[in-house]
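User: Could you go from structure to sequence for me? I need the amino acid at each position, not a summary. Structure tokens:
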């Protein structure tokens, strides 16, 4: 039986359980690509060196606040339809099975559906992220880790004395923090997959958040082959994280041009 290792964090009074399966990171197809780097990253995060104080600083920007909002009526629906039609977003559900998608990746939504149903019945309420993610980590052997803390480093003078660059740094024009729900590897193309569980089924609203996680992880690991997945118990949406820098701004300009904080930050990552 594969061993799940765990480290508990308390960030802004919220518990996050970083969990990973070491054995899967050592598989020959990924160990030299990013498996070893990820294990070293977990060791660093679990050490006394990582900047835990920024995760408890209410003044630091959280990636979870990155939203696509402030647009004209029905704009998000129109944007989502356009992105899916163009192929920039691939959708997997009960009626749509795109070719060349890893079976282990494509079953994420069904796993979420099964365990959502089980926990809803046993708990008498809708389960949160934690039990669903923990089951996926244990049962999907392409899953590597859950609740992974990430952050960026800024060169701004006010942060230089309190957040130094480390081995796994990602530079941006503002310090950011976040927690990636789930990372997996895709055995089809050896890409690293950043996945976010969105039970509310609104993938586009949080696309900027998930894509930011993908962009930061690319820099932290110095590995370019990263893709993003948003999933619920009904669907999966797959996209390149660069979509948030190269494509989404065009739609924002078209449908209201809202002043969103992440629009000025992401070009600097």
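Assistant: Here is the amino acid at each position, in order:
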């Amino acid at each position: 039986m594969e061993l799940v290792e765990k480290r508990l964090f308390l960030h802004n009074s919220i518990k996050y359980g970083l969990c990973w399966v070491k054995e899967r990171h050592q598989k020959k197809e990924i160990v030299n690509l990013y498996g070893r780097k990820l294990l070293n990253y977990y060791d660093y995060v679990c050490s006394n060196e990582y900047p835990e104080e920024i995760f408890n600083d209410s003044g630091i920007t959280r990636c979870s606040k990155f939203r696509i909002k402030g647009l004209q009526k029905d704009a998000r629906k129109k944007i989502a339809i356009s992105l899916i039609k163009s192929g920039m977003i691939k959708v997997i559900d009960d009626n749509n099975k795109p070719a060349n998608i890893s079976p282990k990746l494509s079953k994420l939504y069904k796993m979420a559906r099964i365990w959502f149903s089980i926990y809803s019945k046993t708990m008498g309420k809708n389960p949160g992220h934690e039990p669903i993610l923990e089951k996926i980590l244990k049962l999907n052997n392409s899953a590597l880790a859950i609740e992974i803390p990430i952050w960026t480093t800024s060169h701004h003078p006010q942060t230089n004395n309190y957040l130094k660059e480390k081995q796994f740094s990602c530079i941006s024009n503002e310090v950011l923090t976040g927690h990636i729900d789930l990372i997996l590897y895709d055995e089809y193309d050896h890409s690293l997959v950043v996945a976010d569980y969105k039970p509310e089924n609104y993938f586009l609203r949080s696309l900027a958040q998930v894509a930011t996680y993908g962009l930061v992880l690319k820099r932290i690991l110095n590995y370019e082959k990263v893709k993003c997945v948003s999933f619920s118990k009904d669907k999966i949406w797959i996209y390149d994280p660069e979509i948030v820098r190269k494509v989404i701004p065009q739609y924002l300009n078209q449908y209201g041009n809202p002043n969103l904080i992440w629009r000025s930050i992401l070009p600097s990552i």
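One structural detail worth keeping in mind: The radius of gyration is 18 Å.
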